[in-house]
TrEMBL record:
<dbReference type="InterPro" id="IPR010982">
    <property type="entry name" value="Lambda_DNA-bd_dom_sf"/>
</dbReference>
<feature type="domain" description="HTH cro/C1-type">
    <location>
        <begin position="20"/>
        <end position="74"/>
    </location>
</feature>
<dbReference type="Pfam" id="PF13560">
    <property type="entry name" value="HTH_31"/>
</dbReference>
<dbReference type="InterPro" id="IPR001387">
    <property type="entry name" value="Cro/C1-type_HTH"/>
</dbReference>
<dbReference type="InterPro" id="IPR043917">
    <property type="entry name" value="DUF5753"/>
</dbReference>
<protein>
    <submittedName>
        <fullName>Helix-turn-helix transcriptional regulator</fullName>
    </submittedName>
</protein>
<dbReference type="Pfam" id="PF19054">
    <property type="entry name" value="DUF5753"/>
</dbReference>
Amino acid sequence: MPGPKDIDGSASLPTFYGKELRWKREQAGLTQQKLVDGSFYGASHLSEIERGERRMPLDLARHVDQVLCTDGFFARRCEDVRKARRSGHADYFEKVLEAEKRAETIEEWCPTLIPGLLQTESYARAVLESTQVLGFSDGVDIKVDARLARASLFEDDETPLYWVILHESLLRQPILRPQEMAEQLAHIAQLGKRHRVIPQILPWNAGAHPLVLSSATIMTFADAPPMVYTEATYSGDTIDDPGTVQKYRRSYDLLRAVALSPKASLAMIETAAEGYRNDKRPG
C-alpha cells in the first residue's frame, strides 16, 4: 500500500504548517486518529490540515501542542496560517475558501457577473479594479492571483460537481473588449465540454423568479450539512441554518427549471464567443 502523498512545504504557508505537523506527528509515532483522540475533531479533518487544505482551529492546535509537547508552536502559528489562506480575499469569504475545496457539489447563481470560479484574468481584473475607490489599484494583482487560484478545483476530473446558472445579459452586455470577452466565454464553454461545469443560461425574458433579488452559492458536503453563501459588493454572508438553506435550495431548483438546458446553454455561450471573436456584439 503506497504511503501518504508528499507535501510541498514550499508551496505556501498552510502547506509548510501542514508538513511540519505531519513530521512532528510521525516523529512521535502517532496516527492521525491517535493525535485527535480527546479532541472534537476527526482524523479526516487533521489530514486536510496536514495537506494545507483546511485551517487549524485554535482549540485543536492547543490539543496538538499538548499531545506533541511542541510548546505552543501550532497554536501560535495557526492565526498566521489563517491570514495566509485568505490572502487576496475579504475576511468574510474565508469560510467559502475552505468549504469549496471540500464540497461535493457547488450550485451558483450570480445574476450580474460571471462567478469568480469561472473568471479569466482579464475579467477578474476588470471586476476588481471597478471596486477600487477613486481608481486606486493597490493590491489588485494579489486579488486577481488569489481569485484565479480558486479555479484549481477544476483540475480534478471528479469533484466537486459545479452547476452554474448565468443570466443571458452576461453574454449580451460585455464588460471587456470583444476579444477578451470571447476568451472569457470560450473558457466557460471549454469547462462545459470537459464536463467540469454544467452551465445553464436564464433567458432575459424568463420573468420573475425566487432568486431575483440576490446571488446564491449552495454547497453540499459528504461529512457536513449544506451551506449557502450570498454576497454584495463589500460584504458576504454564510448561512447554515437548515430551514433557510432548504429555502435557497428549493429556489435554486425552481430557477434551474426555467433556465435553458445545459446543451442549449453551451451552444448559446459558444455562439456569443464566436460573435465577439468577429468583433460583433451578440444581439
